[in-house]
Amino acid sequence: MTSRRLLAFAASAALLAAPAAPARAIDPAAGTGGANFMKLGIGSARALALGGAYVALAEGVDAITWNPGGLALAQQREFTWSHYSYVQDIGGTSPFNPKSLFMGYAHPLGRTVFGANFGYMSIDGFEVRDEVGHLLDDSSVRVQDGFFALSASRSFWYEKLFLGGSLRGIYEDNAGTIHSVLVGDAGVLLRPNQYVTFGAAAQNLGASVEKVAQVTRFGAAGKVLELLTLSAELNKANDNTTRIGLGAEFILPEDLLQVGQLALRAGFHSADDMGQVLEQDRSFLYPLIGPPQWSFGIGLYSAQAFGYGLHFDYTMVSMGALGTGKMMSLKVKF
Questions:
Q1: Tell me: the pLDDT tens digits for 146-174?
Q2: CA 177 to chain centre
Q3: Which residues of 11-44 are buried (b: 16+ CB within 10 A; e: fewer)?
Q4: Average pLDDT, rounded, for the chain
Q5: Which residues contact 43 (CB under 8 A, 6 or more apart)?
Q6: 199-202 — which CB contacts under 8 Å span 24+ positions?
Q7: How far apart are CA 12 and CA 22, in angstroms?
Q8: d(Cα 262, Cα 313) in Å, to the nearest integer?
Q9: Do the beta carbons of residue 116 and residue 148 sit within 8 Å?
Q10: Rounded distance, CA 191 to CA 199, Å?
């Protein structure tokens, strides 16, 4: 690998790994994992708003990314699209910009549900520097990453137990240095009653940590008076320390609003101190969207939009001095 490609790869890996860096101690394996973009949570604005505490809540097409066991909860065909505007213009600033794209589809066949999704992110004009950090004139590269997954899930035990698995291909192109790997996921959901859910997932199985870090997730979620959902999750990547995520979602029912269902969300996740938010990057929610541990989101759902079930979700996640990540998702049930 040339010095230019090596430096571009190191810079892009450091940027994409920033949200996953340990907050309290340096793990001996930190920085050794590949495909760090897989940790960004591409695809579900709801999951990011809840602090990533989603392994016990993932259902339908969203579950392909977070816990394939929840895919079997889909009762209708589902199609989802989302755009992630990440820090430093990664993914682009417009939802119609092809620098960031995510799509997914779920298709029920009785108690078994099949699904597929893919995601893509890129950044152009990435600076290249020499060994001592000097910017090389007239030099810029493109960094792009993507994945594609096929999943299947089935319900058991009178729809209280859900098991699923995925096969995923991951692709990285760092300034022309290309890596690709094929991995598997496995997940389970247990719903003993309508109020409590437990979930677990093992992701990126079958590859070395240099290609992609394996992630293990355990979590639980519960409903309070039908209007409030609380969730918690522990996750551990084999190139980092154990992380915690906490989420809360308050729902105003559709029969109260007449036009749809409104969800207000907040989440906390253990993360680095990434510095103070720069004044020019402060969102209208500052200082709520300030420390990089917090996220906030809103969701709208209507069962009668043009004859379909329609979800719209929007989330803001603070990245400290790096800026604010924003994701919007649109899901149609038909």
A1: 999 999 999 999 899 999 999 999 998 87
A2: 25
A3: bbbebbbbbbbeeeeebeebbebbbbbbbbbbbb
A4: 81
A5: 62, 65, 80, 82, 102, 104, 117, 119, 329
A6: 199/55, 199/56, 199/57, 199/58, 199/67, 199/69, 199/70, 200/55, 200/67, 201/55, 201/66, 201/67, 201/68, 201/69
A7: 18
A8: 10
A9: yes
A10: 9
* Inter-residue contact 126 to 87 (CB < 8 Å): no
User: Structure pTM?
Assistant: 0.81
* The one-letter amino acid at 100: S
What single letter denotes the amino acid at residue 322?
Answer: L
Both structure tokens of 187: 């997940």
Reading the block at residue 271, the tokens are 């993360």
| 326 band by pLDDT with thresholds 50, 70 and 90 | confident
Instruction: Tell me the CATH number at 227.
Output: 2.40.160.40
Query: Residues 204-260: pLDDT tens digits?
Result: 999 888 888 899 999 999 999 889 999 999 999 988 889 999 999 999 876 666 677
Cα–Cα distance, 105 to 41 (Å, whole number): 17
What range defines the domain where residue 111 resides?
Answer: 3-333
- At a CB cut-off of 8 Å and minimum separation 6, what does 78 contact? 60, 61, 104, 105, 106, 331, 332, 333, 334
Distance CA 135, CA 120 (A): 28
State how far the Cα of 114 lies from the Cα of 146, in Å rounded to an integer: 21
User: What's the total number of domains in the chain?
Assistant: 1
**CA distances, 17 to each of 27, 70, 169, 213, 291 (Å):** 13, 27, 20, 11, 17
